[in-house]
What does this fold into?
Amino acid sequence: MIVSRVRVVFLGTPAFAVTCLQGLLADDHFEVVGVVTQPDRPAGRKMQLQPSEVNSYCLPQGLQVITPENVNAELILQQIEVWGAEVAVVVAYGQLLTERFLKLFPLGAVNIHGSLLPRWRGAAPIQRAIEHGDQVTGVALQKIVKKLDAGAVLGTRRVPITEEMDAQQLYRLLAIEAVDLLRVELMDYVRGHLAGQTQDESLVTYAKKIEKAEGELHWNQTAEQLSQKVRAFVMGPGTWTFLNKKKVKVHKVKVVAQDSNSSLSVERPGSILKAEGSDLWVQTGHGVLALLELQPESRNRLSGAEFLKGYGLKKGDILGSGSNGPTNEE
It folds into this structure.
């Protein structure tokens, strides 16, 4: 029989955080005494205010939830202090935390981060791991310190990245592994059995925030690089190209050939090599890419076959920036 439970304040915003919160709530070792999440934000075509995924989940559960614009404001800190938590668990919350905040908790604060730290510190670790072709990534539980994602690592879980896995699929897998980290390593930490491993600063890489402009596909890159980008950016901002000066979103692709070889015409990057049946193949800087799912401006998603029927593409047509061909940028 458990005599007492660890009192936890939970901070998080997206669906990934919801999965972790559900894990804590289901674990009899923990008592979630309060939840902090981001305020309602405009979303959708009509830009109506929408609560965060964490807030939407919490309201029916009867949990105490606050949504401050600034979690470090003194009145907010006083409110959190009243909850009397021993530790704060932070999962993709979206605000920096001050030393004053961290001192509210006898055991400090820990963070779930979507990479194998010290690789991919920063805002977009899941997307950057796929974009850069990592074969393995994971999730880490770390102590929160003043420097971004630099605290001692309490535990990790490794997840392989398959050739067809996109960021949304990886996101869901990592969330499940994160729950196990909270169940095992967080409990070991609060019991005083785990101090953590200092990160090797020589191995640090940074997963910078993804800018919208990064979503344009530059056909002089390799087929593999372009596939990685499409799979990485499905969580936002998406990827696109141009056809006749109109933007076409590219939702799903497949590498047909990694090398440009004699069995396929080696044309200018961005050239359509095959446009028949369900096959829409594009020459890249190195290799050939099949476009499997596209979306013209203000239209629904279409399969490659549907797109070919509706837009009359033929071999030799060019995709790329301004619809006059690919850019020279990488």
Observations:
- The domain at 6-207 is CATH 3.40.50.170 (Rossmann fold).
- The chain has eight helices and 17 strands.
- Residues 322-330 have pLDDT under 50 and may be disordered.
